[in-house]
Amino acid sequence: MDHSEVLQQACYVFLNDLNDEINHSPTIQIEDTELLQRCRQIIDQEQNVQIKPYLETLSEVIHAFLTGRASEDTLKFYLSEQFNIVASDIAGLIQGLVKMESRISDTEISYPTVQSLSDSPKISVIITTYNRKEFLYQAIQSILMQDYPNKEITVIDDCSTDGTKELMQQHFGAEPRVIYMRNATNSGPGNNRRKAFAAHGDGEYVLFLDDDDYLIDMNYFSKAVRFHLLHPEISFVAANVFLEYSKAKQLKISNLQLSSIIKKRDYFMNFEKKGYPKPASTLTTVFKREALMAMDILDMNMVNDASIYLRSLLVGDAGFIDVIAGVYRIHGNNITFNLSQGFLIENLEEKKLIKNMAVQKYGYNAQEMTEWFNHNAYDTISYYLLNSAKDATDFKFMYHWALNHCPLIYNQLKNEFRMKLIKKQLLRISLLRSLLGR
């Protein structure tokens, strides 16, 4: 059997064992703690070390479902996507888990369906795309399948050459909820987000979705809007996701572990530090349009996820719904793993603008914000040097930029990355010698 078949078989054994536990428990009602203990026992008994991590995540997903942190949609998606198991094949187990979930969730937060909302404010979804028509189709469908009625999708195509235009015409040309924009020349996702928002982002709430990500909780928009209505002080609300490692064909839960409300100053000053993680892209993040306008989104040089979050946190608090709502793909072609030098400089210049805005418009302390900028610049440049810098020219260029704009981190960067540069140069020499047959 190949790996996928072994994985599927291990999952069936796991689920059948749980089904027996639910249906043949000596007590009338088995508790979730008992079921999770049984999950732990099954995992410990598994002999194949390559299978164990998958069963660990399966146990986490079941626990999330039982405690109201994953919907039935999410549970079924995970079983299908990770193990190729159709829900109808394990209908008895699903029904047993649903009964357990309904009993346990009486003490958990309940997220009302859209029918319980007196009004349905419009959600504008902006999707930027370039040569990813297969991914794009799934992204659009994941929005259309949301049970929330008042939504509109704008797809802005950055001059794709892979048949994206034909895909949009064939599948969504007659769909009134989908608007298609196409650029004559390539201008990058940051510019496209701003352009599409200016043209069609007129909903009370806005979600920016990359073309390779998608939602899996069909009730998520309803939950997000309800959260906004209950907490008018927030700029945005986000949720947890699966990380999809495409090459390994593995899904893992990314749990933000945030409070339901995070104060704007705390989150802004500590953004991406321990205890204050950035949500995965913006795929689950429903922004309040009023907050986006207040933080001058139309004047932004780079409308990327970190910048949108930081500017939004100058305006309002952040909200967090503890559910698994979407899937963030990690496939090696993500822009975050292939940063160009120009993209990086734009990113750093945007952070300088945010620093100045915080001081001049929102009363933040100037010295405090200089330290904030140095920290953010160091992290941004370090990420680039670790993942995207190709040769000595890239390293020297970034050192020079740091010396001119944030000299306090210049020596730290040089000391930190000296050995990495030497290793890159040695590898290049070794490669050249092997190519020359020496």
Fold blueprint:
Elements: H1 3-23, H2 32-45, H3 52-66, H4 72-83, H5 91-104, E1 123-129, H6 133-144, E2 151-157, H7 164-172, E3 178-182, H8 189-200, E4 205-210, E5 214-215, H9 220-230, E6 234-245, E7 250-254, E8 261-262, H10 264-269, E9 286-288, H11 289-294, H12 305-315, E10 317-330, H13 341-360, H14 366-387, H15 392-405, H16 410-436
Parallel strand pairs: 1-2, 1-4, 2-3, 6-10
Antiparallel strand pairs: 4-9, 5-10, 6-7, 6-9, 8-10
Helix pairs in contact: 1-2, 1-5, 2-3, 3-4, 12-13, 13-14, 15-16
Question: How does this model look, in words?
Answer:
It is a single chain. The chain is an alpha/beta fold and 438 residues long. It folds into 3 domains: 3-107, no CATH class; 116-330, Alpha-Beta Complex (Spore Coat Polysaccharide Biosynthesis Protein SpsA, Chain A), CATH 3.90.550.10; 339-436, no CATH class. 52% of the residues lie in helices and 14% in strands. It is built from 16 helices and 10 strands. Strands 1, 2, 3, 4, 5, 6, 7, 8, 9 and 10 form a 10-stranded mixed β-sheet that branches. Helix 7 links the parallel strand 2 and strand 3 (178-182). The chain is globular, with a radius of gyration of 24 Å.
Low-confidence stretches: 425-433
In terms of quaternary structure, what is this? single chain
Through-space gap between termini? 44 Å
CATH-derived architecture of the largest domain: Alpha-Beta Complex
Beta strand count: 10
Cα shape: globular
Q: Figure out the total of helices.
A: 16
Write down the CATH class of the largest domain: Alpha Beta
* SSE pattern, N- to C-terminal: HHHHHEHEHEHEEHEEEHEHHEHHHH
Largest sheet: 10 strands, mixed
Q: Write down the domain tally.
A: 3
The CATH superfamily of the largest domain bears the name Spore Coat Polysaccharide Biosynthesis Protein SpsA, Chain A
Query: What name does CATH use for the topology of the largest domain?
Result: Spore Coat Polysaccharide Biosynthesis Protein SpsA, Chain A
Q: What is the SS-derived class?
A: alpha/beta
Strand content: 5-15%
Rounded mean pLDDT score: 88
State the share of residues found in helices, binned by percent: 40-55%
Rg computed from alpha carbons, rounded to a whole number of angstroms: 24 Å
